[in-house]
Amino acid sequence: MKTYIHAIVLTWLITFWTSFALADYKMIIPQKPGGGTSQWASIIAKHLEPHLGEKIKLVHIPGARDIPGFNKFHNELRFDDKTIMVSHGGNGVSYLTESVDYDYKQYEPIGGMNLTIIIGKKNLEDKIYFAGGSGNIPDVMALTLFMCGNLNSFDAYEKCYKENITFVKGMSGSERRLAFNNGELNITRENPAAYKKHAKAANLLFTHGVFDLDTGQVVDDRNHPNLSFNKVFIAKWGEAPKGNFYDAYLLVKNYRDVLQKALWMNKGNPNATKVTIALLDMLEDNEAMAAIDKAVGDYDWFIADELLDAVNYLEDKKDLSTKSYLIKWQRDVLGYQAVDK
Model pTM? Predict the structure, then answer.
C-alpha cells in the first residue's frame, strides 16, 4: 500500500511540474479583444513565440479607462512567473493623472515599441467631431491647438474648444470606427498598427511625433515625414506651438506615447531575462521584423533598462505647474477623473 501511495504521489508531482513547465506564457491586455493594443500584442506575440520557444496566450481584462487590467496585474497576476503585462498609452495617462495601483518602477522592463498616435480626417471643414477613449486626452489637446492656435489663457482655450470641437466620450473603438466611416465623426485616431487596418477611409492629418530619449525632444515619425503635429501646426499658423497649454499637451503626450506599447514582468521574475533575450532575438530576425514593419511601421524599441530610463526621464522632467494645468483641463473641461497626486 505504501509503495502504491508513493507511486501516486510521484505521478502527481511529475504531472504538476511538467504542466507547470509547459504552461503558456500569458500577455495581459487591459482592454477588450479587437482594440488597438490587442492588435499590436497579437502581432508581437506571433513573432516572439518562436524565439521564446513557448506559446503565448493573450488574456484580455477590460474595464473603465483600461485601468482594472493593469491593477489586477499589479495586485495578483504579476507573481506568476509566466505573466507579461502589455501596458498602453491610456495606462500612461492614468499613471500621470489618476490614483492607480500599478507602478512601472516595481517591474522588470522587458521592452517597448516607441510609437506615436496617428490622427486621420475626412470631410474636415470648420468643426471637429471626435470620439474619445482611453488615452485620447493628448489627441483632444492637439486638435484644440490645431483649431485654435496659440492663445493667451486657459479660459480662451476652453472657449475655443467648446466652439470648435464636439468630443463624444464613452464610445468603444469599433463604435468610433463605424461612426467615422458613416460620416458622423470627421476625425479618427489609431496607433500605427490599427491605423493601417482600420483607417483606410481617412486622410492623414498629423502624427504626434516620436519621443527621442537621447535628446528629450519629439521628432518626426519617419514613417510619415513632415506630418508631425508641430510641423502641421507651423504650416497652418505660421509659428511654432508654445505656452502653458502646449506644455501640458506635451507632458501627457509623452507619457502616453513612451508607455504606449510596452512589456513588463514582476521585479525579480526568473523568466524576465529569457523573455528579454527572446525579444532581442526577434528584433534581429529579418523576416519577423519585415512582417512587423509591414503591420505596424518602422519604429525603434526601448529594451530592458532603456524603457525604465524613459520612465525616469519623464518623471525627472515633469513640471508640477504644467501637470496642475493638465489636470485642470482633464477634470474641468473634459470631465475625466484626475487628481494632483
Answer: 0.89
